[in-house]
Fold:
Amino acid sequence: MSDLTTVELLWLEKRIENRIRFGKPVSEKIIDQHRRILSFMPGSIFAFVRWSSNDFGTILSRIDILRAITPGQRYSTVSWVNPGGESLLRLAGWRKVERVLQLIDAVESLGIDPADAVPEYWHHVHNRLSVNETPRPYTRARHQAWLRRRRMVF
Structure:
Protein backbone atom coordinates (compact mmCIF):
# COMPACT_ATOMS: atom_id res chain seq x y z
CA MET A 1 0.00 0.00 0.00
CA SER A 2 1.38 3.39 -0.99
CA ASP A 3 1.37 6.53 1.13
CA LEU A 4 0.87 8.58 -2.03
CA THR A 5 -2.38 10.26 -3.01
CA THR A 6 -3.24 9.59 -6.64
CA VAL A 7 -5.38 11.66 -8.98
CA GLU A 8 -6.75 10.30 -12.23
CA LEU A 9 -6.85 12.87 -14.99
CA LEU A 10 -9.21 12.33 -17.88
CA TRP A 11 -9.67 14.35 -21.05
CA LEU A 12 -12.37 13.64 -23.60
CA GLU A 13 -12.62 16.51 -26.06
CA LYS A 14 -15.67 18.72 -25.43
CA ARG A 15 -16.98 16.25 -22.83
CA ILE A 16 -14.77 15.82 -19.76
CA GLU A 17 -11.66 17.53 -18.47
CA ASN A 18 -10.04 16.65 -15.15
CA ARG A 19 -6.81 18.53 -14.61
CA ILE A 20 -4.40 19.71 -11.97
CA ARG A 21 -4.15 23.52 -11.86
CA PHE A 22 -1.22 23.55 -9.41
CA GLY A 23 0.70 21.10 -7.30
CA LYS A 24 3.92 19.13 -7.34
CA PRO A 25 3.33 15.53 -8.38
CA VAL A 26 6.12 13.08 -7.64
CA SER A 27 5.16 10.69 -10.40
CA GLU A 28 3.02 10.38 -13.49
CA LYS A 29 1.68 7.25 -15.13
CA ILE A 30 0.23 7.52 -18.63
CA ILE A 31 -2.62 5.05 -19.07
CA ASP A 32 -3.61 5.99 -22.63
CA GLN A 33 -4.07 9.10 -24.77
CA HIS A 34 -6.96 10.26 -22.56
CA ARG A 35 -5.93 9.20 -19.05
CA ARG A 36 -3.01 9.83 -16.71
CA ILE A 37 -2.48 9.22 -13.01
CA LEU A 38 -0.49 11.71 -10.94
CA SER A 39 0.82 10.92 -7.45
CA PHE A 40 1.36 13.41 -4.61
CA MET A 41 3.42 13.09 -1.42
CA PRO A 42 1.62 13.32 1.94
CA GLY A 43 1.21 16.95 2.99
CA SER A 44 1.49 18.38 -0.51
CA ILE A 45 -1.23 20.75 -1.71
CA PHE A 46 -2.80 20.65 -5.16
CA ALA A 47 -5.77 22.08 -7.05
CA PHE A 48 -7.97 19.64 -8.94
CA VAL A 49 -10.34 21.12 -11.54
CA ARG A 50 -13.20 19.14 -13.09
CA TRP A 51 -15.42 20.13 -15.97
CA SER A 52 -17.94 18.15 -17.97
CA SER A 53 -20.62 18.81 -20.54
CA ASN A 54 -23.25 17.12 -22.63
CA ASP A 55 -25.04 18.02 -25.85
CA PHE A 56 -26.79 20.92 -24.09
CA GLY A 57 -23.75 22.57 -22.48
CA THR A 58 -21.73 22.50 -19.26
CA ILE A 59 -23.16 20.28 -16.55
CA LEU A 60 -20.32 20.45 -14.00
CA SER A 61 -17.61 22.93 -13.05
CA ARG A 62 -15.80 22.16 -9.80
CA ILE A 63 -12.51 22.92 -8.10
CA ASP A 64 -11.03 21.24 -5.05
CA ILE A 65 -7.87 22.37 -3.33
CA LEU A 66 -6.66 19.40 -1.33
CA ARG A 67 -3.78 18.45 0.92
CA ALA A 68 -2.57 14.89 0.32
CA ILE A 69 -3.10 12.89 3.48
CA THR A 70 -0.71 10.98 5.68
CA PRO A 71 -1.63 7.40 6.61
CA GLY A 72 -4.20 7.28 9.42
CA GLN A 73 -5.34 10.87 8.87
CA ARG A 74 -9.01 11.65 8.33
CA TYR A 75 -9.89 12.76 4.82
CA SER A 76 -12.70 13.73 2.48
CA THR A 77 -13.51 11.51 -0.45
CA VAL A 78 -13.29 13.20 -3.83
CA SER A 79 -14.11 11.60 -7.15
CA TRP A 80 -10.98 10.63 -9.10
CA VAL A 81 -8.74 11.08 -5.99
CA ASN A 82 -7.49 8.01 -4.15
CA PRO A 83 -7.89 7.70 -1.25
CA GLY A 84 -9.06 11.33 -0.88
CA GLY A 85 -7.59 14.42 0.72
CA GLU A 86 -7.92 17.08 3.37
CA SER A 87 -10.27 19.60 1.83
CA LEU A 88 -9.00 23.17 1.92
CA LEU A 89 -11.47 24.45 -0.69
CA ARG A 90 -14.37 22.88 -2.56
CA LEU A 91 -16.51 24.99 -4.86
CA ALA A 92 -18.82 24.30 -7.77
CA GLY A 93 -20.34 26.46 -10.47
CA TRP A 94 -18.44 28.24 -13.19
CA ARG A 95 -18.50 31.73 -11.58
CA LYS A 96 -16.95 30.48 -8.35
CA VAL A 97 -14.48 28.19 -10.12
CA GLU A 98 -13.42 31.04 -12.40
CA ARG A 99 -12.94 33.33 -9.37
CA VAL A 100 -10.72 30.73 -7.66
CA LEU A 101 -8.67 30.38 -10.86
CA GLN A 102 -8.23 34.17 -10.89
CA LEU A 103 -7.07 34.12 -7.25
CA ILE A 104 -4.59 31.35 -8.08
CA ASP A 105 -3.28 33.52 -10.94
CA ALA A 106 -2.94 36.44 -8.49
CA VAL A 107 -0.84 34.32 -6.09
CA GLU A 108 1.37 33.25 -8.99
CA SER A 109 1.75 36.88 -10.10
CA LEU A 110 3.48 37.49 -6.75
CA GLY A 111 6.08 34.90 -7.72
CA ILE A 112 4.65 32.40 -5.21
CA ASP A 113 3.70 28.84 -6.06
CA PRO A 114 0.07 28.43 -4.90
CA ALA A 115 1.01 24.99 -3.53
CA ASP A 116 3.29 26.80 -1.06
CA ALA A 117 0.72 29.41 0.02
CA VAL A 118 -0.73 29.42 3.54
CA PRO A 119 -3.22 26.51 3.59
CA GLU A 120 -5.62 28.60 5.67
CA TYR A 121 -5.81 31.10 2.79
CA TRP A 122 -7.61 28.50 0.70
CA HIS A 123 -10.06 27.93 3.60
CA HIS A 124 -10.64 31.70 3.66
CA VAL A 125 -11.28 31.77 -0.10
CA HIS A 126 -13.70 28.85 0.22
CA ASN A 127 -15.62 30.48 3.05
CA ARG A 128 -15.88 33.90 1.40
CA LEU A 129 -16.86 32.65 -2.05
CA SER A 130 -19.37 30.22 -0.54
CA VAL A 131 -21.38 33.22 0.69
CA ASN A 132 -20.70 35.38 -2.38
CA GLU A 133 -18.25 37.67 -0.59
CA THR A 134 -14.86 38.87 -1.84
CA PRO A 135 -11.81 37.12 -0.36
CA ARG A 136 -8.88 39.16 0.85
CA PRO A 137 -5.97 39.08 -1.60
CA TYR A 138 -2.91 36.99 -0.80
CA THR A 139 0.13 39.17 -0.07
CA ARG A 140 3.89 38.73 0.09
CA ALA A 141 3.78 39.89 3.72
CA ARG A 142 1.32 37.13 4.62
CA HIS A 143 3.44 34.61 2.77
CA GLN A 144 6.61 35.71 4.57
CA ALA A 145 4.83 35.44 7.94
CA TRP A 146 3.72 31.90 6.98
CA LEU A 147 7.28 30.91 6.04
CA ARG A 148 8.61 32.22 9.37
CA ARG A 149 5.84 30.46 11.32
CA ARG A 150 6.42 27.21 9.44
CA ARG A 151 10.17 27.30 10.23
CA MET A 152 9.40 27.72 13.94
CA VAL A 153 6.84 24.89 14.08
CA PHE A 154 8.52 22.35 11.84
Q: What stands out?
A: The chain has three helices and eight strands. The two ends are 27 Å apart (CA to CA).
